[in-house]
Amino acid sequence: MKILAIETSCDDTGIAIMEAGEHGRFEVLANIVSSQIKIHKKYGGVFPAMAKREHQKNLTSVLIQSLKKSGLLKTGNTGFKTSELQNILEREPDLYKKIVLFFKNHKKPNIDLISVTNGPGLEPCLWVGVNFARALSYVWDIPIVPVNHIEGHILVNFLEHKKIKFPAIALVVSGGHTQIILVKGVGKYKILGETRDDAAGECFDKCAKILGLPYPGGPEIFKLAEKAKPGEIKLPRPMINTPDYDFSFSGLKTAVLYADQKATLRLRSGQEKQKYKAEMSAEVQQAIIDVLIKKTIKAVKDYKAKTLILGGGVSANKELKSQFEKAIESNRSTALTGLELIFPPVNLSTDNGLMTAITAYFHRNKKVPWKTLKADANLRIS
Ligand code: KG4
Ligand code: ZN
What we know:
single chain; alpha/beta; Nucleotidyltransferase, domain 5; five-stranded mixed beta sheet; 13 helices; 45% helix; 17% strand; globular; binds 5'-O-[(R)-(carboxyoxy)(hydroxy)phosphoryl]adenosine; binds zinc ion
């Protein structure tokens, strides 16, 4: 079964083509991600309308690249009713022009299933992907399976781990979400806790912006943090001792803002400023890691999880992963004896089409007609 998957929930335009064979064997034929970082860097963050425009620009060329890479691009012509396609892409006129040209010059590829992220995420961005999937589904007459983006961040781990033991606890940490999820099996989820305000990735991004670092802030803070030790500057660990599994990161950002205002008045030389930025980065990163680890390990113990799954852009952070490993090792003799920690490779931590393809494979029977498929910015996993 060949699955073509589309992911446009935030600022990455991703299309993957995957062949799912017997016994859950996944062969990745293509996984192309066109990043919009350069554009959003100029403005210090993602503006949904701008991201939507970029997705419209990129989708057709990312589709062509992924079909080419998979050996599935065939020249020729595919017929369709112009008025129907116009209706589907009514709100994406730039995309309409490009995809019409594509259909006029290419035959239907050998694909069995289309999948698309339909939520959660930035509403205008989700809709471009969904309408693109609807257009392909209509013209090619191939069914669609919609995919929850958070579930994608969890199930992408099946690429490298064929047998995940349940119950598992998943920590999904991205630019838009921070959730601790009880995973009883594929498709069986319960959100145990989540952030009450900013997501962990958002906190990295906002603190980086305060420090004058470019977007996205997570990797920038990580790089600077390597040059200093946490604890030189002291920041709070919000909600670290509350008995629930919830988080709050907006206070941390405010604390960084106040500290930064004072530091800017005090620091004179460039060298002093660099030292301060590195120390602040190390402390911000550590404060985020401390709360993430404390709450997640508590959930792992409370629910006697056999696997701890990390996912989402922030799980690309090396320090987070190594401190999770250490926390588990130091608890081995007690509650966490058989626990296995799994996380995706860096390119699959951040948004990509393959996570959508893998998730669609598990839900391959949940097809939705293109006529009724909708995006849902607030889609919940449980
Ligand atoms: O999952 P993702 O690509 O998009 C969303 O679904 O939001 O996550 C993007 C987030 C950004 O906030 C980015 O700063 C953060 O992931 N991120 C990192 C690292 N790499 C990306 N945060 C900390 N350390 C990193 N190495
Ligand atoms: Zn994501």
